[in-house]
Write a structure and sequence with these properties.
Distance between the termini: 29 Å
Helix content: 10-25%
Order of helices and strands: EHEEHEHEHEEHEEEEEEEEHHEEEH
CATH topology of the largest domain: FAD/NAD(P)-binding domain
CATH architecture of the largest domain: 3-Layer(bba) Sandwich
Strand content: 25-35%
Shape: globular
CATH superfamily of the largest domain: FAD/NAD(P)-binding domain
Number of helices: 8
Number of strands: 18
CATH class of the largest domain: Alpha Beta
Radius of gyration: 21 Å
Amino acid sequence: MEMSTTPTCWLADVPLDAFPSSLPMGLNGRASTEVGIIGGGIMGVATAYWLAKAGVRVHLFEAFVLSAGATGRNAGLMLNGGSPLEDPALLEAICTEEGMEVGYSCPGHLALASRPAIWDKVRQEVRTRPASAPPLHALDVSSCEDLLHTRISRSFYGGRWYPAGAVVHSARLVYELARAAVKHSASIHCRTRVVSVGNCAGGVSIATDRGTVTANHVVHAAASGTPALLPELNAVLTPVRAQMMVTRPIRPLFAAGLGVDWGDVYGRQLPDGRFVLGGCGAEPVPSASGPAAESTDTPIQLRLSRFLPGAFPGFPDFTVSQRWAGLLDCTADGKPLIGAHPGRPKHWLIAGFNGHGMPAALGASKALAEAMTTGSLPKSLEICNPGRFKSVQRPERFERSNHA
């Protein structure tokens, strides 16, 4: 997929060329590995980390730079839900173990309800929430104002307050995790585009613009760009364009993550005073490549610019410093694809997170690594099995190579 160089606030804070390719041009298939991973977003890098930590020889290929796609274009919200894949303790443990600084904190998250029906659903969710689940509160507008210390428009009916809502620096998480993966002997090759993937004797042939690498297995972690190499997934993965903007710094207002309804608008104020805001409309696009896929939409950007003063009367004047768009990889049933490709032996998928990939990334990639190395699909991945879109293929036990 042709990646845009549109700047984002996340990519401006990381060393974009920290992981240059060590593959020389004209390699002609002389390199080999146990697992090749296609895609340098959070899913690909996290999978490389877990496999490398397990002693598997891994080569990761990224066409541009790490987190250039959806990972580096979001709001950095970590809203863990009820899935066992979304465990914040996992990120906290890795940060401690690997000495990672990723801007992770738990300021909570407030989603304002813009319609009576949404407000009713929030209150119903709170009433029926299991006692074992993290606390959730339905607050009236006055209580939301007390929480944020900010006036809120009476066009809202109340708010869904989730104290466990967390935030993270999206790109820094990827780069720190990549550093940890390399420490465990993973090889990361940025600015190395995979142009085709095919079967070869005993494995998979991964052709890149620097040459061809043979692997025992390949993991497709290119999000909305996955169908470019696996066209059969065009009917399964839909690229959806989402819009973002970031302001110049203003005075501190509130640290909590912000949403409207179920993600119609989302964002937060960064520690330096900038506001990152997204939403106000998302639309499917015909293809995950080409300039139209990541170009901004003027009407949506105008709605984003008007949201803050409309939602919070007296909101200070601000200037927008950056605007960008990114592609979500969406599935028809809202569940991701994690596991063995049902029609291609030795191919694995981790994609289709429907804009909710950050909270699940570490748990999902860890479970995928387990499926690859044991040949058994973890229970947590059963509802994510790609085979639900085609005849189910039993995961093939991972084969260790003699050419490491």
